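Q: I'm building a small set of examples for a reading group on sequence design. Run inverse folding on the following structure and report the sequence directly after it, with nothing in between.
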């Protein structure tokens, strides 16, 4: 079992969300799951993704688990990539009710903060906010998907029942990249 993250070309931040690689490493340690990652450009993403899937396949991993809920285009891309290597793709959250999922997460004790917002969807003042019922109601009032399935925002999970210890984060500022405001955050 591995936690897979694709990194930007210099290997310092996650490719899509701008989360520092060191924070992802600490998250994997706290989860007790080895981290696998690849640095890549957007143009080389598919090749890098297939390469690491091939390595997983050679190690005996037969299925990847993905957290998508409803983006059919993304599901098709993942399923196609996995099947081209002979790896299955599992989507345990697919089609589930947002209300049921949020209740499950809150009841289980998971904690997450907003680390990126798409500029045309949300104001950067949401950066660093805890995901809680108040914030999710604000998002609902704004027409924002509770799980950011349309790319409106991204989070990092900092605690929950599967963590050995919570991650303590420190915000160092914010920056703008590719239409998104991103919280520059580190694990302390």
């Amino acid at each position: 079992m591995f936690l897979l993250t694709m990194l930007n070309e210099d290997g310092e931040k996650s490719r899509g969300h701008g989360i520092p690689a060191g924070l992802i490493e600490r998250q994997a340690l706290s989860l007790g799951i080895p981290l696998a990652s690849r640095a890549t450009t957007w143009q080389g993403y598919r090749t890098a993704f297939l390469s690491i899937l091939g390595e997983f396949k050679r190690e005996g991993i037969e299925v990847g688990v993905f957290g998508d809920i409803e983006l059919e285009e993304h599901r098709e891309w993942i399923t196609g990539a996995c099947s081209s290597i002979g790896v299955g793709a599992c989507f345990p959250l697919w089609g589930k009710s947002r209300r049921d999922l949020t209740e499950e997460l809150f009841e289980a004790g998971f904690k997450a903060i907003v680390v990126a917002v798409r500029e045309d969807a949300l104001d950067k003042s949401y950066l660093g906010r805890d995901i809680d019922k108040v914030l999710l109601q604000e998002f609902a009032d704004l027409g924002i998907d509770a799980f950011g399935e349309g790319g409106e925002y991204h989070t990092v999970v900092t605690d929950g029942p599967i963590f050995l210890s919570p991650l303590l984060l420190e915000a160092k500022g914010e920056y703008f990249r590719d239409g998104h405001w991103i919280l520059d955050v580190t694990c302390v």
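DSSP finds five helices and eight strands in the chain.
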